[in-house]
Write a structure and sequence with these properties.
heterodimer, A: mainly beta, four-stranded antiparallel β-sheet, B: mainly beta, seven-stranded mixed β-sheet
Chain lengths: 112, 112
């Protein structure tokens, strides 16, 4: 399948370790943020979202942290598995805008 | 399968030909979005609909691009007089009344 990970920052982790993927967003007016996972040849898959009135949100094995002061978003994946290998995108949105604006993406590679 | 579906999954066309892609959103999702994704990049917003109304189309890449959602259900994206630079993955997403967008598998367009 075609890779969506060409020329992207790459994070390589050992299976079982925790992963942290970072994202800097651009618009201080953004009030909604999403993390997506994209495997080669597939569409982006929703992982977790967070609104700007929150600093942290947890899901199953994933946590998103939002720092509005420095416009920074991070995705933490606990006990990373080979199936987590993919490209991860953060995206931001404002209510007046409707559409998502995507960041550049980070390729996560999990070594067995 | 109750996810977003897109057809065709792959399209190869000759430069100058017209192409049309179809997106079927998740049932009862009133918002539908089109994005384009090129290798190594995040999805780039093109246009979106709320029910049958096209609320944003200024991001369509040129007047060769048009989209419709005639009955507020499925949508089509048409590219007229295709150019080699149109080669990309075309993604459709839908969302309910909140802002969480669910993506389809995409249509891979190759213009020769």
């Amino acid at each position: 399948g075609e890779s969506v990970g060409l020329h992207l920052p790459t994070l390589s982790v050992q299976e079982g370790d925790n992963s942290i993927i970072n994202c800097a967003y651009s618009n201080s007016a953004s009030d909604y943020f999403i993390w997506y996972k994209q495997e080669s040849g597939k569409g982006p898959q929703f992982i977790i979202d967070i609104r700007s009135n929150m600093d942290k949100r947890q899901g199953q094995r994933v946590t998103v942290l939002l720092n509005k002061t420095v416009k920074h978003l991070s995705l933490q994946i606990a006990a990373t598995q080979p199936g987590d290998s993919a490209v991860y995108f953060c995206a931001e949105n404002t209510r007046s805008q409707g559409n998502l604006i995507f960041g550049k993406g980070t390729k996560l590679s999990v070594k067995p | 399968d109750t996810g977003v579906s897109q057809n065709p999954r792959h399209k190869i066309t000759k430069r100058g030909q017209n192409v049309t892609f179809r997106c079927d959103p998740i049932s009862e999702h009133n918002r539908l979005y089109w994005y384009r994704q090129t290798l190594g990049q995040g999805p780039e917003f093109l246009t979106y609909f709320q029910n049958e109304a096209q609320l944003e189309k200024s991001r369509l890449l040129s007047d060769r691009f048009s989209a419709e959602r005639p009955k507020g259900s499925f949508s089509t994206l048409e590219i007229q007089r295709t150019e080699q630079g149109d080669s990309a993955m075309y993604l459709c997403a839908s969302s309910p009344r909140d802002w969480k967008q669910y993506f389809g598998p995409g249509t891979r367009l190759t213009v020769t």
